[in-house]
Amino acid sequence: MSAVAQPRVASASAAEHLARALSARGVRRIFGLEGGHVQPLWDHAARLGIAIVDVRDERAAVHMAHAHAELTGETGVAMVTAGPGVTNTVTAVANATISGVPVVVIGGCPPAAQEHMGPLQGLRQVEIMVPITRFARTSRAPENAVRDLDAAFSAANGEGGERGASYLEFPTDVLRGEVPAQLVLDEFSAPRAARRIAPDLGAVQAAVQRLWSARRPVVITGRGARGAERELIALLDAVGAVYLDTQESRGLVPDEHAAGVGAMRGVVMSQADVVLTVGRKLDYQLGYGSPAVFPHATFVRIGESAAELSDNRRGDPEVRATPALALDAILRAAGGRAPATDYAWSAGLRAAHAQRAAAYGAKLASAPAGSDGRMHPNRIFAAIRAVVPDDAIAIADGGDILSFARLGLTQRTYLDSGTFGCLGVGVPFAIAAALAQPERTVVAVNGDGAFGFNAIEIDTAVRHNARAVFIVANNAAWNIERYDQIVNYDGRVVGTELRDSDYAGLAIALGAHGETVTDTDQLEAALRRAIENAPALLDVKVTRDAVSSDGGKGLGYVPTYQPLNAWDEAERRRRAGEVTE
Ligand SMILES: Cc1ncc(C[n+]2csc(CCOP(=O)(O)OP(=O)(O)O)c2C)c(N)n1
Ligand SMILES: [Mg+2]
């Protein structure tokens, strides 16, 4: 076959090549805030029909790119201008990296001829971004711009490491630089298939040995397990293991599945003899895997990266692989082998779980008002259970309210403030969700404190017709912190009270539908109207008196060794040489 020369554009600016590369990669939407430094690329992206979601603060753009990536499986893309445009993204960039979500942030910076001369919006931005990204680079040669963009996408998607945010900046003169078409290789803008790492067979056999000889096996999943639903369920069935999900992997295994024992989390952790982690770090949410929290357990670990395989507790074995492939290989290697699982133990846990979960659900709708006469926050979740479909996208952000939401919301698609505890994600996450999947209902439950960070983005929701429902659980306080001051600092409440502001009025002023709800009887109807008239906000006046699970367990206090008081005490006993039972 003889090579046929393809017709090519003779030459174009780096900005035009970059816009084409983004389009060729399948990028259909960019979140950002304009500035002259990035305008050449902004303009070419728009000319190619890439939708630009223009926000009011760059942090929100990166939160939106994060949620977009979470919900679509694509790489989220944000574009921000030099200087404050870049520094405004820091919190959201760190959050994406800590959450392991692939986001590419494209920044601007001054032209080379002005470098070190005191230019407008000049700053050593890459140095700020290095510790909070997987990749941070200035692209200095126009002919390498598309290659650098490809490298940023690869790093964000975890090629050779963990997933997270990439930061790539272009000086404005580089964006304007002309690049002959033959210098831009197609391979740098070709979409890539998701990475798949096959397991080592020795490790697979060792995992079978461990799992099939366990008496009390527990499987715990994290973000890395997404995409392995089928294999995960098959393994749970084959081993008869019980299952704990975490917020990162919510919805992987349906609630009805016989392995689910989420309401018995503490008991399960204290009794397990073999714990299989799948794509999950043993971070603070899992007591760092400490023997104080898992006194009888050894660990088997499956994951693609070191962080999921060996943080805090070593696995025996550690199966480094894409979880779906590892689980599948384990199942094949086990064949029809009978597990040693104590089925009376797992059945007992399951029954106790079912009873607890049902009792919890039944109590939501009768949760008592506080001494201030305001409703219990759980009334919000009773109304959501009654009105919002299970296939909706649920989002939670805040302190106490996040703790209530984790138990109150039942939707399988769920996003929240995450391990970074990143207050402020609720509004931008909901907007990106509504834009990515306009056919689904999107409900975000926010504390009044958390809501404030990105409240102005309701303006963005209105301008882009992002039909999300924002619920503000308004207790006029940063309440989980206020509770900590009351309990642990002799009641000296300082800087944790807020105004009982009119958030419905705020939403209306920004062009959205807004209602204040003070009466529990009005909640369901108001929620229906909000869904109908979205974008919409419900300002629900809730009591400060309700103590959340996180608040009650000491999360706000920040104990020394562990995130929760009970685990911290167990850790102290372990350090003192006492035996934990
Ligand atoms: C950006 C940020 N600032 C501060 C905190 C500390 N913090 C955690 S929860 C919380 C209170 C949140 O208040 P609100 O959103 O109103 O929820 P509530 O506890 O009142 O339900 C604070 C200040 C944080 N996690 N993130
Ligand atoms: Mg509050």
Question: Which tags fit this structure?
Answer:
6-stranded parallel sheet; binds thiamine diphosphate; alpha/beta; disordered N terminus; binds magnesium ion; 581 residues; single chain
How is the topology of this model organized?
Layout: E1 11-13, H1 14-24, E2 29-33, H2 39-47, E3 51-54, H3 58-72, E4 76-80, H4 84-87, H5 90-99, E5 103-109, H6 125-129, E6 135-138, H7 145-156, E7 165-171, H8 172-176, E8 178-180, H9 201-212, E9 217-221, H10 229-239, E10 242-244, H11 265-271, E11 274-278, E12 298-303, H12 306-310, E13 318-320, H13 323-334, H14 343-364, H15 378-387, E14 393-397, H16 400-408, E15 413-416, H17 426-436, E16 442-447, H18 448-453, H19 458-463, E17 468-474, H20 479-488, H21 503-509, E18 513-517, H22 520-532, E19 536-541, H23 549-553, H24 565-575
Helix pairs in contact: 1-2, 3-5, 3-17, 9-13, 10-13, 15-22
The structure holds thiamine diphosphate (TPP) and magnesium ion.
Question: Summed up, what is this model?
Answer:
The protein is an alpha/beta fold and 581 residues long. It has 24 helices and 19 strands.
Descriptive account of the structure:
With 581 residues, the protein is α/β, with parallel strands linked by helices. It is built from 24 helices and 19 strands. A six-stranded parallel β-sheet has the order 3-2-4-5-7-6, sandwiched between helices. Strands 15-14-16-17-19-18 form a six-stranded parallel β-sheet, with helices on both faces. Strands 10-9-11-12-13 form a five-stranded parallel β-sheet, sandwiched between helices. β18, α22 and β19 form a beta-alpha-beta unit. α1 packs across α2 and α3 packs parallel to α5. It starts with 10 loop residues before the first strand and ends in a 6-residue tail after the last helix. The N terminus is likely disordered. Bound molecules: thiamine diphosphate and magnesium ion. The site of thiamine diphosphate has 18 residues, from α16, α18 and α20.
